Amino acid sequence: MKKFYLTAVCSVVLLSGCATEDFAALNQKISDAAYDVNRVVYGGQVTPNSVSKTFFVDVDVDTVAARMKSYYGFSNARIQATPGAFYRMAGNTGKNTPRDVLWISLNKEGANRTSIKMTHDSAFERTQAASWRDDLFEGAKDVADGKLR
User: How far apart are the C-alpha atoms of 149 and 144, rounded to whole Å?
Assistant: First the structure.
């Protein structure tokens, strides 16, 4: 009888080891499939993150503010300003849900010199790509310089 129990216990232990590996493999396949479905349903939504970049242009701060406000369509309600010195503006951009957010801070650095700090918040894989954000920041510099309207 002891031999039967010992054989049964050894069989259960060996079989449960195989079952655990099979279960882990099945669980991984289900997890991968759920991730793929999530990317399709939610458009590549991932953990939100922010990236900032600061750059300078040889244009007065008021002109840069007017260009940025016009180009990005910021409403007056989302702008803080001390004309001639600094501006802070924010707005939703893109077509994603939730929308990406663009924060722009402009500071006068001297006669006809403005520092621009842009922060881009996104929860989507495509707009978190470094190349996409590099294009965004380069485009903003062109807007500030008057090259892009």
Answer: 9
Q: Which residue has the higher pLDDT, 129 or 21?
A: 129
Say if CB 49 and CB 122 are below 8 A apart: yes
Element (H, E) at 130: helix 130-145
pLDDT digits (tens, 9 = 90+) for 9-50: 555 555 555 566 776 776 677 766 666 665 555 566 778 899
Residue 74 backbone dihedrals phi, psi, to 5 degrees: -70, 140
Q: Give the residue from 109, 117, 134 showing the smallest Cα distance to 58.
A: 109
- The CATH number of 47-145, from 3.90.79.10, 3.30.1330.60, 3.30.530.20, 3.40.50.1980, is 3.30.530.20
The whole-model pTM stands at 0.70
Radius of gyration of the chain (CA): 27
Q: Kindly list the domain boundaries of the chain, sorted by start residue.
A: 1-41, 47-145
